[in-house]
């Protein structure tokens, strides 16, 4: 009996040591993870979704300031979705491709330097096609939200209220997702994007209403 107890004690101690080592490695891995590696695709995705939502919602609010027809709002919103997604994709592609060229040139200079033992891997270079696709897709996802919100509502005032409400809730979600993935303050990130969206919609609605009343 005593021999069995002596045998079981080292086994339990070994298990505890292994568990402690696993926990320590997990903590080290978490600490060593470079969240800046997410910056490229996260920036393209989150900014694209926010831009798509705010741009199309503001555009529809602007059209709604002078026209109560749901068809006019939906057509304007759809045009904004297509144009914005194309613009975001092209802009992101050009921007990231320029960054890639700069980093590639720097790699070539480092290779020619005597005594340089560090070389950046090509796999770590930014991918312009990936960034462009992510940006365009994210913009379209964000832009389709106000379109769906307004598509089945005939009453003019209710339609405007639903667009603002749905856009605000979605901006909270986008801000929260970006904060969680990027390890930034959750509340501050969400409040910032919501206030920005409100300002964009209010300014677009107000200026369009003013121009429409002036008869221009």
Extract low-pLDDT stretches.
Answer: 27-35
Q: What is the molecular shape?
A: elongated
Number of domains: 1
Order of helices and strands: HHHHHH
Radius of gyration: 26 Å
- Overall structural class, as computed from helix and strand content, comes to mainly alpha
Distance between the termini: 99 Å
How can the largest sheet be summarized?
Answer: none
Helix content bin: over 70%
Mean pLDDT comes to: 78
Summed up, the helix count is 6
The beta-strand count equals: 0
What portion of the residues fall into strands of 2 or more residues?
Answer: under 5%
Can you characterise this structure?
- The chain has 216 residues and is an all-alpha fold.
- The protein has one domain (39-214).
- Helix content is 84%, strand content 0%.
- It contains six helices and no strands.
- The chain has helices at 2-32, 39-66, 70-112, 128-151, 156-182, 186-214.
- Helix 4 (128-151) runs antiparallel to helix 5.
- This is Vacuolar iron transporter.
Summarize the structure.
This protein has 216 residues and is mainly α. It has helices at 2-32, 39-66, 70-112, 128-151, 156-182, 186-214. It catalyses: Fe(2+)(in) = Fe(2+)(out).
């Amino acid at each position: 009996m005593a021999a069995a107890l002596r045998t079981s004690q080292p086994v339990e101690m070994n298990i505890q040591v292994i568990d402690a080592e696993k926990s320590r490695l997990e903590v080290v891995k978490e600490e060593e993870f470079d969240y800046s590696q997410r910056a490229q695709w996260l920036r393209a995705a989150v900014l694209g979704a926010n831009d798509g939502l705010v741009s199309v919602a503001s555009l529809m609010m602007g059209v709604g300031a002078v026209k109560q027809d749901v068809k006019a709002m939906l057509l304007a919103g759809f045009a904004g979705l297509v144009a914005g997604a194309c613009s975001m994709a092209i802009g992101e592609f050009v921007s990231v491709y320029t960054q890639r060229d700069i980093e590639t040139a720097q790699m070539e200079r480092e290779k020619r330097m005597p005594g340089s033992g560090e070389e950046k891997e090509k796999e770590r270079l930014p991918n312009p096609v990936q960034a462009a696709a992510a940006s365009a897709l994210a913009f379209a996802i964000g832009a389709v939200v106000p379109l769906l919100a307004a598509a089945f509502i005939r009453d003019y005032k209710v339609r405007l209220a639903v667009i603002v409400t749905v856009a605000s809730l979605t901006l909270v979600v986008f801000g929260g997702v970006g904060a969680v993935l990027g390890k930034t303050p959750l509340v501050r990130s969400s409040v910032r994007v919501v206030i920005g969206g409100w300002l964009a919609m209010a300014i677009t609605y107000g200026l369009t209403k003013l121009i429409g009343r002036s008869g221009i």
